[in-house]
Amino acid sequence: MEETFTKPMRKKSKSKEKKNYDIIYYFLFIFIILIELFLILTSSKKYEQQKLLFKNKHNIIVNKNNNISSLLKEIEKSEKEINEIQTINIVNNNNSLQNYKLENKNLNTENNNLSIIFHKTFEEYESRKQLFDDEIIEKKNTIKELYNELKDKVLIRTNLEDKLDILEEKLIGDIPYIRMKSTILENDENKKNLLIKWISSVAGKEIKKCKLIFSAEEHDFDSFTFHEICGDEDIENTLIIIKTENNDIIGGFTYASWRANSLISFDDKAFLFNLNKEIKIRISNPSYAINSRINDGPIFGISDLIINYDKLKVQEKMECYGDRDLEIGSDIIKIDNYEVFTIIFN
Q1: What is the domain partition of the chain in residue ranges?
Q2: Where are the beta strands (DSSP E) in the chain?
Q3: Distance of CA 306 to CAs 130, 235, 240, 312, Å?
């Protein structure tokens, strides 16, 4: 019996295993290729993004460069304009400097002329000062002597006037009439009534009497006499009426006393007035209502209205009385007369 040869099964199994490995390698190779393709696609996309970003940055840089170029051109243009302006200003400044030098020279010349005139005037004043002072002293002594001689007669006349006033009050009874013996107002009852109305309104009382105590015309505008008479402790509530050389009738009213050298006095009722224009100016700073200096006559405010002998000085813009002026057309003016009344209330 013949023996039959058979292939071992083992060899066949090895061939199958080899084929299986080949398939795995094939798929692995395919998978690797796919991964590489994916990576290539992804990198391409990132590249495009980076390229776009670079392009945008490049455009921004180009725009900035263009703006810088424009600014440089504007700066260059501005520098040219500045140089032109500076050139013009240098010319103008030179002209201004020449004009200034000329004007300064003229001012110096004028100042020298004024200085010469001043020194000449001062020398004339010094030469006449002693004579003038002697005349003033003699005049004051004469006035005081006359005052002392007439004092008793004045007192007698005053007592007589008081009696006449009492008699007149009895005669007129309840008739609302107030006597005001003013040579300035004379028979102008409208101005008298306006004054009485203003004073009564400020005081809140009815006026009983307006008594004349001082007339500058009679007392030769002497400030010492004014303070001696009007600065008496018993004198209060004074009305001052002033007539200027231009026929303006102005004045003031105050409760404060004119005692000599009592200086600044408080009064919240004081006021100034211009009767011709019916202007009434209330006190705006009551702490400085009047100023009583022995060398001057009446002074309202610190220096709003000053009477010095026969001269009147009024500030155009008053410091202590309201925010307007008395409208008399001049800061310093000569006066014809001023009268002082004491007001007696019911």
Answers
A1: 181-345
A2: 207-215, 238-244, 249-254, 263-265, 271-274, 279-282, 290-292, 299-300, 305-308, 311-314, 332-345
A3: 26, 20, 12, 6
Please give the distance of CA 342 from its chain centroid, rounded to a whole number: 37
**284 close to 269: Cβ distance less than 8 angstroms:** no
What CA–CA distance (Å, rounded) separates 297 from 313? Answer: 11
Measured CA to CA, the distance from residue 239 to residue 272 in angstroms comes to 10
CA 216/CA 338 separation, integer angstroms: 5
pTM for the full model? 0.52
Amino acid at site 243? K
Distance of CA 101 to the CA centre of its chain: 34
- As a 3-state breakdown, the chain gives helix, strand, coil percent values, each rounded to 5, of 55, 20, 25
Q: Around Cβ 104, how many Cβ atoms within 10 Å?
A: 10
Sort 226 into a burial class: Cβ within 10 Å, 0-12 / 13-18 / 19+.
buried
> What pLDDT digit, counting tens, does each position of 104-140 carry?
787 778 767 776 776 666 666 666 656 655 665 565 5
Q: Which residues of the chain have pLDDT under 70?
A: 1-19, 111, 115, 118-177
Tell me the β-bridge partners of 250.
242, 274
Q: How many CA atoms lie within 13 A of 11 on its CB side?
A: 3
Residue 206: Cβ-neighbour burial (10 angstroms; 0-12, 13-18, 19+) = exposed
Residue owning tokens 């490049």? 58
* AA letter at 316: E
